[in-house]
Batch of 4 targets.
Target 1
Amino acid sequence: MFVVVGVSGGVAAYKSVHLVRLLILAGHEVHVIPTQDALRFVGLSTWESISRNPVTTSVHDDVAQVRHVALGRAADLVIVAPATANTLARMAAGLADNLLGTTLLATSAPVVVAPAMHTEMWLHPATQHNMATLRGRGVHVVGPGDGPLTGGDSGPGRMSEPEEILEAALAAVPGDADLAGLQVVVSAGGTREPIDPVRFLGNRSSGRQGVEVALAAARRGARVSLVAAHVDAQVLAEASRHPRVQITHAGTAMELRDAVVAAAVDADVIVMVAAVADYRVLKIADDKMSKQGQEGLTLDLIQNPDILAALVRERRPGRTIVGFAAESATGDELIEKGRAKRRRKGVDLLAVNEIGWDKGFETPDNELLILNASDDVVARVQGSKRDVANALWDAVVAVRDHTHPEKHSL
Ligand code: C5P
């Protein structure tokens, strides 16, 4: 999961260092947003080193990346710990003059606060009123506990322990981040094989399905390496903003192979959605070819390596490999063609697509069936490419649970 930890200025900030550590150990991506005051208690370098991510307090840093809203949008969960009386009041009022404030307004993720303050401040009607407002908006509250406070006094106001905050925070997240901790590689789009400086052999793949597969994995908690072959910037837009998606561009089949192989080094799952050219031109002309008389033109082609089959041959234990097959067939013939291809490639799952002039490519919707390693049809899916992507990940999770449950980290 992508977790934002807001830290406001209370001495309990030191306990949040441990909270961040627990989140990291559980495989989450953590971004800490301290307030200026919080940095008086625990410094920036501590947060950066413990969260393994850059930390800033200002809405004016990283403006081009729209950081003031980007973290909030990307978050699956926001925790504010410690939440001081001041920060809780600011949240209740919707103030947004620091990065934590803008992030809290920009997020639609569950928000969990762990209040920490002296008993009088906690019990003050203003604070209690703010808490009622926040609860009314669906903010989850953990603690405060009753116990010794900084000044030697004792009473309600003590921030809950990091383990308790973590448990409450994870319980607040709807659904499950069932791919958290997994490293995933997805290829998308279609390769282009040059003929001369201006012409190429290509295909109609828009890359939409591959991008949806990548995004669905990222939303479900995976870290995704997306290798994109000629995918429009518009189709890539959301993926390029997602902090857990890293995009590499590839033009030809050979470039795609190199990019996928490099990204695959520590991959738990590889999904080859890209339409890879089976052939490339043997001799690419240095100059633009011109028409020669009335004769036809013959191009000599050579076969490209089958990237998917090679990935299967060289796979390490625990890795799940998924292929896509676009076939001009229907019904039983489609299933049989799919089964033959699955066996040829040796993949764990094969998504089989019926394609035609107006089916499969360049469309917002898709329809496919998924074959497993026993050649059973484990799913038939029809719907938006996003729905199809999620159904595919459901099938991946089922395969991993079945074959190597210990690899399926949560
Ligand atoms: O054999 P076919 O091209 O139908 O196989 C499709 C599947 O194989 C897709 O997952 C595609 O990404 C992959 N592929 C590949 N290398 C190739 C051709 C296809 O990895 N040269």
Target 2
Amino acid sequence: MKKTKIAVFASGTGSNFDTIVRERKAGHLNVEVCLLVCDKPEALVVEKASQYGIPTFAFEAKSYENKEGFEREIEKQLKKLEVEWVILAGYMRLIGPTLLQAYPNRMINIHPSLLPAFPGKDAIGQAFDAGVKVTGVTVHFVDEGMDTGQIIDQEALRILDSDDRDSLQKRVQEVEHRLFPATIQKLISERGNQNEKKSTH
Ligand code: GAR
């Protein structure tokens, strides 16, 4: 079966990026990871992509006049590689109209809370500080808001009395690493990919 071409956007450590690549290698995810897009050239995820031989577009926002400037450049790269789905895996930047229009309903994000609770940065710390007893992970479509798009799937996780921020983060990320690849695979197998769709018309 034809592999769906994806690009992963990330800004940091890249544990979710790593999981996606590993699950692909293990044959559990029918995708080709065509490109990593990273807005922090010094981030660990860039090193990971280079170890896997995955092409990277790393940029600094301040080198462009505005968001439209770097998003046009990203769009050019995505189109050149015929990328069909965009996967945000810890990309800590709001997506603007340029990319939203280029990938309508084909861009998803993972967030470490049960949205709509605790959107934005440091969702795990926000949940910990709020003293809630349950948090979790959400995968959702991307829209113009901050972690506000339509929810695709969620998994809850109990916060234990023994948890500190680090242990909670570790357990939340274990959920992410299971939920994200499974959700991506489900979505692409349900919706097919653009080329297959085209060939049926
Ligand atoms: C992940 O926990 C992801 O859910 C979060 O950033 C982390 C990236 O970790 N994303 C957000 O908070 C988006 N609002 P990673 O670099 O190890 O994959």
Target 3
Amino acid sequence: MKKRFLAMLTLIFALGLLLGGCGGEKKVEQKVLRVGTEPTFAPFEFQKEGSKEYTGFDMDLARALGKQLNMKVEIVSMGFDGLIPALNAGNIDVAAAGMTITPERAKSVKFSEPYYKSGLIVMVRKDNTAIKGIEDLKGKKIAVQIGTTGAMEAHKIAGASVVEFNTNTEAALELKNGGVEAVVNDLPVVAYFLQQGGGKDYAKMVGKVVTAEEYGLAVKKDNEKLAADINKALAELKKNGEYDKIYKTWFGEQVK
Ligand code: GLN
């Protein structure tokens, strides 16, 4: 009797294990999508004051893409100039960082279809009346973020001395402190900064948009599969209205 009871118990236990195991299998573990970014680029990627959470247009887009791909999005923060090396080293799967698609970068990474139109603009101190646009930056001291298209453009200006910072925050601070006469950065970011009062009345934008750029999500050069999946998911988000919803959150109604 005792033996039979023990045998029954063992059976029940084994069955439990089996069923438990099945249950575990049914709940397929979501794969992780490691998304690299540089979070001093509001409204695309930033941390709200006092919060550690990464927020912004790119972050919403990355999370929506993750949902579409049934992957768990994990945001990895790093310097902008570290993103492409991190992709190549396999430390991140995607870079979502307001990264402009350039022929030079396209040699070392694979870009998704463009997802946002942008361009560069010049920011100076409010009391500066001499600099009216990029054409007035010859021989001037300019602050930029390292590794960006703003940095590349500034380096083309004759006689200019370009001071490179790890973050956009530091570049803007240098303008505030009078260490430089101008900052070259992406228009939507400068506009948002000024609109949010980040310039605390010391800064203004001048001149026309300097370049025509498009942002793309970047993956490792040979990761054709992920690039294709991302493009498909991106197209779906554009079709189902999710992209427009995210756009509206950060920029208002889209001009089409
Ligand atoms: N769009 C610019 C670039 O790709 C700046 C990006 C950024 O600072 N996050 O270089």
Target 4
Amino acid sequence: MKVIERIADLRAALAPHDSAALVPTMGNLHAGHLSLVRIAAERGHPVIASIFVNRLQFGPSEDFERYPRTFERDVELLEGAGCDYVFAPTESQLYPEPQVCFVQPRATLADTLEGRFRPGFFVGVCTVVLKLFNAVQPRVAVFGKKDYQQLLVVRDMVAQLALPIDILAGETVREGGGLALSSRNAYLDERERAEAPRLSAVLQRIEQSVRSGSTDWARLEADAAANLAAHGWQVDYVAIRRGADLGAPRAGTPLVALGAAKLGGTRLIDNREIVDPAR
Ligand code: PAF
């Protein structure tokens, strides 16, 4: 496995290959990321994992500076997972000058939920993802369903810009108690770690209620948010949406229950798909 920092070197290394599969990451890798690498490898293309903590997608009061950076360990994990190239650009490689051109994602997908609580987040994500796509020119790219809204926003960007890239989705990987693996779990202290699985539990309860026929979306959302708040969470949203486009839920269509809430100083997000609502 080769570690490459510069776009020119990456292009030279990839020139002999006629295809590539990209797994974009911000590092601090866990089993969830490694499962995406395995999905990429299954396609038979050389696998490139990028590691880049993208300043553009962090708000001014967010955790860009303290975001966990564990480069050496990440490289070891990627090697073990069958990655062929690590693309780890410096900030000056990806942003050689202040960025003035941005990708503006579709508002109905990007300005709700995460976009409402993290203004500019998806502009930052789409802009860096497009840059990574341009640097790597992959045939496929793999994103985790843990960031469900991000997956839809990226898929939509790819369709809108007619990029010749298949976007594959990896299932969320969870700890035994249900907590979705996330780099930000590292911020949780012992007490918070014990409490953290509640986010996935309340979303799972929504899933079960909808499967049992409940369509009182507002009540289900409010009950879940109240449960979290009663246990010390500061809730940004719990929302039931259509799985395909995050529109208002309709009985009988695939749905997704999404949540974001802060536990102490740590903001966690999670979601549960409800693919067969009445089963
Ligand atoms: O999901 C992430 O880790 C990031 O948003 C991504 C896709 C690597 C873009 O910086």
